[in-house]
Every structure is written in structure tokens, then in C-alpha cells.
Amino acid sequence: MAAIHNHHYRVAYFEETTVGTPPNGATWNASGVPIETTMVDVSGLKQEFITDPTLEEHPLDMGTRAVIHGIKNGQIKVGLKLHGTGAATEAASQVAANALSNLLKHAWGGVHRSSTTAVAAATDAKTFTVDSATNIIPGCVIGVQDTSSPSAEYSGVVVPRRVLSVTDTEIVLEEDLPFTPAADDVVHAAITVYLDHSALEDAVASNDTLSWLIALGHESGTDHLYQVVGSVISELKIDLPEGGVPGLEATIECGTFMHGTEDGLSNPDFATATYGHAQLAIGRNTKLSIGEYGADTLAYVDATAYSLETGVGRQRVKSITERTHNLEATATYGLRVDNTTLALTFPTYEEAWYSKLNASTVYRLTLAQHAAPGKGWGLFIPKAQIEGTPGRQVVVDNWGAQVSFRAARASNATGGSNNELERSRILLALF
User: pTM of the entire structure?
Assistant: First the structure.
């Protein structure tokens, strides 16, 4: 067999119509969703093998019988690109779902898609009327672009904000924009991903499982071809490396897996192009604002390091039976809940963080990449408290501060029809 270079990646997923049933070759061709990735790790695809426990007449025969084939599930990890929607959404149109947003919905449970409109008139930097408020609801994210008289800093870029209320065509934002909107400024549609516990509680009952096809050497036949079925994204990490590009790391638990022609696999010829767009560098037009919960004042701050634990995902419910074919030793995948925390390192140390901890001050945090339409993203924690004594960290020979925030369900966006969106303790927006 010829040597194959380790950069022949091709990754695709398929939303299973029947839990645990992978697509056949023709269905992979027609309905598989190839997507650009930054990392693939299949080392977790290991079948268990059990030593035959039979007692032998001769002691040196113990453990020498053929091994018993055990459970064959495991996990994989896939790195995904974090970027915007890919293109501006036309006026009076709803932003389209895409390959990335569908995976994000699977991981967090909920997605809302707003529509593009324009400012009619503004009261201040957070309150304005629009031509149409179709698909703009409390809790969702929209992007506002100053097209009438932009400063050099905000020329050509979209600034995302969470919506607090919608009254007819009047929009009230959670936080001031860095400019006061004017008539005809564009209000861009955004995809808002939010936590929805009901969608994550039972993957089998809600028919919400994925098949993945991973080719590590797609030009070499099937020697490097894997398929996992009956799978879910159990954890999604958001990575924002200093000087790098934003990304997502998906940990995927699977019901079982197949490998090569031994398990009947063949390389598909996908009908659709591989989905993905260029990422933008962290540190350029990347803005962090922290303000007190309930206050609308814009306050940008610098951070030198970041660590996020979303705290919500799915977990395998183990079983001694296999009710659903290809979900080996798995009854379903259920909701996993832990704390949602954002730890930040600031370049200077201020005693005020300690004072705010003692005062039980509640905050809101927005970390976003302001960018041209179709290229930006934003991470929103609408309500959080400092969860421990602020620490000290040396930042380039200076004392910096380490502060960790713990998110809670917000209650300041009201009047809409989507309670889970309004109260989600974390949001990820693509715009």
C-alpha cells in the first residue's frame, strides 16, 4: 500500500431521519453535508475487547482463548470554523440556515433567525424604530451598521446587540451602540444560537442524531475512511486563541462506527460544495464590553486571555440493552448541565473587582468580532456574577487580574414568545 500524506481531509455529516441508521452511498451523495474543518481526531473510535474468563485446566492457557468482541462506540473530535453567515442577507429577507448553524442548533438546542430591515428613526443609541420588525423578537441578536455617517472605526462593519423588547416597530437594545442610528442605517439579520433544554433532554425521542463520514485520505480508497452513526455533539468549546482565528471544537459521542470496505463503506461523491468561509483574526475588531446588568452604558475593556465553559451539552445514558439498532449499550443521550463560566485575564489589576464581588454586582458581557456583513460573530452572556475572589496574573511584567464570571438565566428581555431564547444564559450569534 502506498504512503498517504496526512492532509487529505474530507468531513461530512448527515441529520439522521431514523436514529442510528446511516445513509447509504446514494443518500450520502445527495444529502450529506460536507463542511470545512480545522482538526479531526478519530483516536477515540475503539471497540472494547473482553478477555474470555473461562477457567482452564492448564494455568498457562488462561487468557489465551479468542477475545470476545465488546461494545463498539467511542467518540471523535472535530474542529469547526467560527465565522459569520457568509454573506449579507437582503432587505426584508430572513437569514438562511446553513451547515454551521444546523450543527450549532444540534449542540445547544435552539436557533432563531431574524430578518434584515432598516432604521426609520432613532431616539438614542439603543432605541429606534425600523421599517419592519418581522422575525425580530426579544432575546435575539441583530446587527446594526452605521451607513449614514460612520466613523473610521465603524465604517463598513456590523455591530451586534441583543434585543430587550419589541413594540410594534420600536426596538430597544440591551446595550448602547457606539453610535446613534440614523434613518436608513441597515439592521442586519443574525442567526442566534441559544440553550434549549427541552431539545437536548432525549436525543432518541426527539430524533436528533447525526451520522459523520470522515476521510483521512480520500484519494486512497477506503483505508482511511470512517463512519460514525447514532451520534450527538456532547460538548462544544469556543476557542479564541491570541493571534489566531476563532474556532469550535465539537466532541461527538457515537452509537457505533464503521471503517473501510470491511464494514461496507465507499467514498461518496457529494452533490453539494463543501461549506465554510474564511475566519477573521482575533484581536482585530474584536470587542469585549462589560456592563452592569440592567444598565445600557457601553464600556469596552481589554482582555489578554479567555476561557469559556459552556456547561451545557449531552451525555450518554448507558444501557445493558440495545433497543435502538446501532446505539450499542446506549439508551439515549440526555441533557448535561454544569455552570456556564467565562474566565478573563485583564492587563491591569483593580481592587474594584473585589469590591464588586462583595457587593454581589450582576453583570452582562458581550464578546464580538465587528466585521463586514456576513463575516462577524458575537458571544453574549446577558447575566453573570463574579464567582470567586479575583486573582493576580503577571501580564508582560505587570500585575493583571483574573476574574471568573458565572452566568445565570436572564429576565430582562420580555414580551416575546420564546422564553428559552429570552432567558438563555449564553448566546452565540452569526451575522
Answer: 0.96
